[in-house]
Amino acid sequence: MSIAIVTGGSRGIGRAIAVGLAQAGHHVVINYAGNEAAAQETLDAVQAAGGSGELARFDVGDEEAVSAAIKGIAKAHGRIDVLVNNAGISVDGLLARFKADDWGRVLQTNLSGAFHCLKAVTRPMMKQRSGRVINIGSVVAASGSAGQPAYCAAKAGLEGLTRSAALELAGRGITVNCVAPGFVDTDMTRALPDDRREAILEQVPAGRMAGPEEIAAAVVFLASDGGSYITGQTLGVNGGLYL
Length: 243
Ligand SMILES: NC(=O)c1ccc[n+]([C@@H]2O[C@H](COP(=O)([O-])OP(=O)(O)OC[C@H]3O[C@@H](n4cnc5c(N)ncnc54)[C@H](OP(=O)(O)O)[C@@H]3O)[C@@H](O)[C@H]2O)c1
Hints:
Layout: E1 3-6, H1 12-23, E2 27-32, H2 36-48, E3 52-57, H3 63-77, E4 82-85, H4 100-128, E5 131-136, H5 140-143, H6 149-169, E6 174-181, H7 187-190, H8 194-202, H9 212-223, E7 234-237
Parallel strand pairs: 1-2, 1-4, 2-3, 4-5, 5-6, 6-7
Helix pairs in contact: 1-2, 1-9, 3-4, 4-6
The protein binds NADP nicotinamide-adenine-dinucleotide phosphate.
The site of NADP nicotinamide-adenine-dinucleotide phosphate has 31 residues, from helix 1, strand 2, helix 4 and helix 7.
């Protein structure tokens, strides 16, 4: 059976990806940082959809913890077929007042976290001579976003990491791509002040936010047989927000 790891699978986009991959026949390892109840809800949703899964709590920013967890998963299942680097946080603030600690936290989770997980799956995937890695970026990697310097830098870095890893791993049958959502209805965007949400929504040509399952559909496609010759790409799923 195909084994898929989804980081940040307890909520939002990650939950929808976990359910989508489970419906497509993958056994899903649902990673989360600390919200066990939410992670359990994802596992319940996976099972309700007729799929199978398990929980794996670790901080993607902690390289040792990632390495130990992914080694354990590879040992238990004998393989790792799909990695979705979805875990992410957002800390907003104007550049002149942006705290170095917040900069470090955002880069550690959103960019180093993806690097740690990608590095850890590389060995089993190279041995299998197959694998799919899908990094969840953001439209702001290309467009920029005033008040989000660290988040934009991390997401732009993720695209560079995607292209570099794609080149390095293509000959081993491993694809590495990025899905870059626009504005999605999750806890992350619900935390924004109403006026900011409305201002962003006004700029979306589709006139609405995406549902998490609309992002998940792109991920499921890239993980499917149909995605076998696509690598190093960034697929925007953004309702026309930035073309
Ligand atoms: N929402 C949007 O509009 C939007 C747009 C573009 C891109 N994205 C990207 O899509 C991804 C998911 O966003 P979302 O809106 O679904 O976020 P969310 O609802 O805030 O959920 C974040 C998820 O990441 C997990 N997480 C956070 N830090 C972690 C860490 N250090 N280690 C492991 N897991 C960690 C959380 O786990 P716990 O539940 O345990 O806290 C949770 O499962 C992020 O990469 C985000 O940047 C979102």
